[in-house]
Each structure stands twice: as C-alpha cells, then as structure tokens.
Backbone:
C-alpha cells in the first residue's frame, strides 16, 4: 500500500511540475488513470493551460471533468476549489462562492501544510475568515507540489497590499525554478513597473507581446501585454491595437489593468 501511495504521489507531482513548466502534453502523459487523483489533475492542467494560452474550451473541459469526478481525502476539497475558481472566471459568482466555501470548510479541518495554505488563500478574500499569511508563505517555501500556486497567490495578495517589492521577490524566487514561464514573466514585469523599474518592465512586456504573438495570438495573455504597454508607454501604437475588433472580441475576459 505504501508503495502504491508513493507512486501515486510521484505521478501527480511530476504531472504538476510539467504543467508549471508549460509543457502540457507531458503533464497529461504523466497522469495515471488508475490514480484516484487523475481527474483532479486533468482539471488543474487544463486550468493552468487556460491561464497561459487563453482557450476558454479548456475551462469548460475542466469543469465537465471535475463535476463528474469521484475523489476522497485532500483531492475532494481540491476538486471543489478548482470548480469554484473556474466558475469565478466564467462569471458564475454564486456557484463560485458555494464551491469555494465548501472546499475551504474541508481544508480548514485538515492539518497538512498544503490544506492550510489553500485555506489561507480563501481566508484572505473571504469576509470574517482569519487569514494566516504564514501558512501561505510556508506552503510557498516548502510544498513539493503546489509551491507555484501558493507563490503566485502570495504575489497578488502582496500586490493588493501595495507591497510591490515583496511581491517582486516572490516572483523572482519562482522564476529561479521556472525561468522561462511566460505568465510569471508578465507578473514580474508588472511588479517591476510598480517598484519604479519602468524601462525594464516595458522591455519585458515587449518580449512577452512578441512571444504570445507567435504561440497564442489574440489570447488573453497577448492582450495583457499590449494593454500594459499602452498604459506604461502611452504610445499610440499600443493604444490603436486596443481599438481593434480582435481586442473587443476578447475584452470581456481581460483583467482590469
């Protein structure tokens, strides 16, 4: 039994590691259908790929898989957490609140490090819940499987608290492990802008715009790069792009910049 659990642990850790490296084909190939966490892992990889490449079909596929998924232990609240996240992105606010709160109530009762860190993410945004930043930082520093997720969440929590230098430190720490990660590079560029390193931020967003123009043209990430460049430079070139029909077609999915 211990050997089976160990192999399952290695399987999902390997799958997630490939997903965090933006190697989605390899991530799917590492998922064992005999593993009870397989359906949740597929959902995580699909959501991760959406965040990078912006194909909304990945969200709908992930939602379908996760809704029909049968899991136990840690993977049940993880399943519900991801369903909540997807519904939030799709604008289904009530469903998102119900699933995320349900996941959080299970995470809160668990004592493992990952569960505490996931609960901390929920608690920061939930009224009346007690946020423990140390639990999130601990997950970021020590989790073998979700450090990327916890680090990314920590960056945006620090950003909301206007602690841009600390957020940049976390982004740099993640980039040491995933040096070419395209979404992390955008995150770092944004934090550079807020600490006053405007020229470096602009250069990074220009590189990102060129990268996404090749790998995912007209994706959310492509337009994030263009929007930031319009804001940071004020150049007519970037502002004109935001008047295009391609941008207007995707505008509803764009974060506020």
Residues:
């Amino acid at each position: 039994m211990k050997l089976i659990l160990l192999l399952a642990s290695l399987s999902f850790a390997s799958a997630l590691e490939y997903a965090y490296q933006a190697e989605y084909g390899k991530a799917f190939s590492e998922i064992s259908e005999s593993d009870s966490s397989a359906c949740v892992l597929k959902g995580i990889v699909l959501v991760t790929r959406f965040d990078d490449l912006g194909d909304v079909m990945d969200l709908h596929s992930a939602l379908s898989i996760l809704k029909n998924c049968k899991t136990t232990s840690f993977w049940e609240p993880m399943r519900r957490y991801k369903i909540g996240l997807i519904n939030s992105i799709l604008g289904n606010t009530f469903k998102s609140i119900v699933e995320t709160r349900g996941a959080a109530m299970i995470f809160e009762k668990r004592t493992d490090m990952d569960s505490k860190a996931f609960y901390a993410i929920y608690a920061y945004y939930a009224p009346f819940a007690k946020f423990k930043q140390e639990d999130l930082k601990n997950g970021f520093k020590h989790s073998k499987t979700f450090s990327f997720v916890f680090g990314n969440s920590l960056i945006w929590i620090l950003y909301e608290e206007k602690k841009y230098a600390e957020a940049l430190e976390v982004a740099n720490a993640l980039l040491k492990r995933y040096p070419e990660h395209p979404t992390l590079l955008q995150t770092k560029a944004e934090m550079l802008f807020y600490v006053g390193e405007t020229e470096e931020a602009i250069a990074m967003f220009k590189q990102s715009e060129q990268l996404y123009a090749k790998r995912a043209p007209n994706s959310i990430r492509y337009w994030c790069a263009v929007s930031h460049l319009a804001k940071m430079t004020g150049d007519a070139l970037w502002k004109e792009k935001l008047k295009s029909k391609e941008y207007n077609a995707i505008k509803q999915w764009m974060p506020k910049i």
Summary: DSSP finds 15 helices and no strands in the chain. The radius of gyration is 18 Å. The first helix runs from residue 2 to 20.
